[in-house]
Automatic annotation (TrEMBL):
Alphabetical list of InterPro entries matching this protein: AAA+_ATPase, ABC_transporter-like_ATP-bd, ABC_transporter-like_CS, P-loop_NTPase
Keywords, comma-separated and alphabetical: ATP-binding, Nucleotide-binding, Transport
PANTHER family according to UniProt: ABC TRANSPORTER ATP-BINDING PROTEIN (PTHR42794:SF2), HEMIN IMPORT ATP-BINDING PROTEIN HMUV (PTHR42794)
Organism of origin: Paenibacillus tyrfis
Protein name: ABC transporter
Length: 268
């Protein structure tokens, strides 16, 4: 699915939060949104997944304006794994994943064998099949996150939006989750804080700073020690890892910087 965002702006009480955001995601691409706290990543995503209404600009999916789609039509095309996972009701894990099938059904239509198979398969892919009958609210943060990913898989939408999907996940599941998204070849847009993960897994990165797109391109085009200093305010060294051939970032805490500068070891 091709996703286009043009001139997207959103603000609260006249104060702009994101301004003039343009981006394009080509079919099958995994695009990461990176940027410091408060730079507008979640606000941008919420405008795309329709929790917020853009004040200017537009979003299109395969050339169709999002604003012209019903919410059901949107959900057939777009699955969301967001950070707000609390639910007022206590559903089982199975029921939560089954909700991913709703956009494909008529109201009150019974669940089919195909629905059951898709739910089972999705739970298996995230390693949560043994938890199917557990109550969702009793799960740990990471387990909940994996169930929400399973729901997105069961939804079978072509476009996946994720807001910090690896939040709460231990390192094994972080890698598994990112690998999964990559191997599914779904068109995906994800806010990410871990810049090494972003460089490793994303085809392209969009760097947000103070509500605007500061830079965009492949990790190699975008990421530099200069950008990390200017946008994130950190000192770091980047190398192409000899095994993965991907960019790998090492950060230098302030306490080390003085020492390293003196030794001439800090490379900009
Ligand atoms: N409803 C609101 N009213 C006022 N300010 C808001 C509102 N929603 C977001 N903001 C502000 O807009 C800015 C961008 O917030 P947003 O959550 O989009 O940032 P983010 O890049 O996702 O941050 P983080 O990395 O911390 O999750 C923040 O300064 C936030 O406080």
């Amino acid at each position: 699915m091709k996703v286009e965002v043009q001139g997207l702006s959103y603000g609260v009480k006249g104060v702009p939060i994101i301004q003039g955001v343009d981006l394009q995601i080509h079919p099958g691409e995994f695009v990461g949104i990176i940027g410091p706290n408060g730079s507008g990543k979640s606000t941008l995503l919420k405008n795309i997944y329709r929790v917020l209404k853009p004040q200017a600009g537009w979003i299109s999916l395969d050339g169709q304006q999002l604003s012209e789609l019903t919410h059901k039509e949107t959900a057939q095309r777009m699955a969301v794994v967001s950070q707000e996972s609390s639910s007022a009701f206590d559903f089982t894990v199975w029921d939560i994943v089954l909700m991913g099938r709703h956009p494909h059904k008529r109201m009150f239509a019974a669940d089919t064998r195909e629905d059951d198979a898709l739910v089972g398969e999705a739970l298996e892919r995230v390693g949560m099949e043994a938890y199917a009958r557990r109550s969702f609210s009793s799960l740990s943060g990471g387990e909940k996150q994996r169930v929400l990913i399973a729901r997105a898989l069961a939804q079978q939408s072509q476009f996946l939006i994720m807001d910090e999907p690896t939040n709460h996940l231990d390192i094994r599941y972080q890698l598994q989750m990112m690998d999964l998204v990559k191997t599914l070849r779904m068109t995906a847009l994800s806010a990410l804080h871990d810049l090494n993960m972003a460089c490793y897994f994303c085809d392209r990165l969009i760097v947000m700073n103070e509500g605007e797109v500061y830079a965009s391109g492949t990790p190699e085009e975008v990421m530099s020690a200069e950008l990390l200093r200017q946008v994130f305010g950190v000192s770091a060294q980047l190398i192409v890892h000899p095994v993965t051939r991907k960019l790998s970032i090492t950060y230098f805490p302030e306490s080390l910087q003085h020492h390293l500068t003196q030794k001439g070891a800090l490379i900009s």
